[in-house]
UniProtKB/TrEMBL annotation:
Coiled coil: none
Protein's recorded name: TIP41-like protein
GO cellular component: cytosol
Pfam families noted in UniProt: TIP41
Ranges for region Disordered: 1-21
Family stated for the protein in its record: Belongs to the TIP41 family.
PANTHER family associated with the record: GAF/PUTATIVE CYTOSKELETAL PROTEIN (PTHR21021), TIP41-LIKE PROTEIN (PTHR21021:SF16)
Any single GO BP term: TOR signaling
Natural source organism: Folsomia candida
Length: 317
């Protein structure tokens, strides 16, 4: 694929290979920017049933698997034979998964000089979901929170023992390419709670968009009682790149919550800033707003007070 080509290439189903729902495609696009290689993978939602039986060496050799890797580059042969249904089942301790999980959706940025990787993937986001109900919300709005779950028809024995809103505090994944065991020093260093601020003036300037994409990692409509959604988008400009990872939760008649992770890299720097900001409010305290506001995140966002904010400075080598 040519550098900078944002048209996704699809991988057809090999002749004679049965795939769930008849066909699964992994779409890929890449863009190079100032020593970074930016890769985006997209795929359909997670199937309901295991399909490990179709992932054998003869059927998958030379094609792209659900991990977005070719047969020869898969981490291990054992993993290669595991479908995403099994990988997610084994990798998570959740009793229930969101209605829509996009297991292969991935935003991957690699700093070529060292092999440092900044990544946003569905599995890591879901690993940070609590296996129990979100305590802080339950305490703050106990009656409407529990009443909503009863109205949803959830069994009494699970009203308290799983995170039915699929709340995650995922901020992205920082890692090294491969093992890189030969490295004597880490490829990145995180300075937590830095006094530096995002360069909002720079971000508000009109610039040419060199590359843009967005992905949904997971989504659930909470049995028609709201929405839980995690998505990520990136835009690359001549001056740098900006990433927004957003977790959005709305429980109808109960509360609204938006947790944003903003990452800004400016060309020429050996670091980038990561801002994590969480806004939350009960609808009881937003009673003066037009009900239409609650269903429009762009309007609701400005009415939610900031509860948590921290900025990290991440140095790369």
């Amino acid at each position: 694929m040519q550098v900078g080509d944002s048209d996704a290439a699809t991988v057809p189903n090999p002749a004679g290979v049965r795939r769930p729902d008849g066909l699964r495609r992994v779409a890929m696009s890449k863009h190079d920017f100032e020593g970074w290689t930016i890769s985006v993978l997209k795929s359909p939602i997670l199937p309901s049933n295991c399909y490990c039986d179709v992932l054998d060496g003869e059927n998958t050799k030379g094609i792209v698997l659900e991990t977005g890797q070719s047969w020869d580059s898969v981490l291990s042969k054992t993993d290669a034979f595991k479908c995403q249904v099994c990988r997610y089942g084994e990798g998570l301790e959740l009793k229930h998964l969101p209605e829509m999980v996009f297991p292969d959706n991935l935003l991957h940025l690699e700093y070529n000089a060292s092999g440092f990787v900044l990544e946003f993937n569905t599995l890591d986001a879901m690993k940070l979901m609590s296996t129990t109900d979100t305590h802080s919300v339950r305490v703050a709005m106990s009656e409407p929170w529990q009443a909503s779950k009863v109205e949803m028809g959830l069994p009494k024995d699970i009203l308290h023992d799983f995170n039915w809103t699929f709340t995650t505090e995922y901020k992205g994944t920082l890692k090294e390419r491969g093992n890189n065991s030969y490295k004597s020093e880490p490829l990145f260093r995180v300075e937590t709670n830095t006094s530096d601020k995002l360069n909002l003036e720079k971000l508000m300037q009109k610039e040419q968009i060199l590359f843009y994409d967005e992905l949904t990692l997971f989504e659930d409509e909470l049995h028609d009682n709201g929405i839980s959604n995690c998505s990520v988008k990136i835009r690359v400009m001549p001056s740098g790149f900006f990433i927004l990872l957003r977790y959005y939760l709305r429980v109808d008649h109960v509360m609204g919550k938006v947790c944003d992770t903003r990452i800004h890299f400016e060309k020429g720097n050996q670091y980038f800033l990561r801002q994590y900001q969480c806004r939350e409010e009960s609808f009881k305290n937003l009673g003066t707003l037009d009900p239409q506001t609650f269903s429009d995140i762009n309007i609701l966002y400005n009415h939610l007070p900031i509860r948590t904010e921290i900025i990290d400075k991440i140095f790369i080598t």
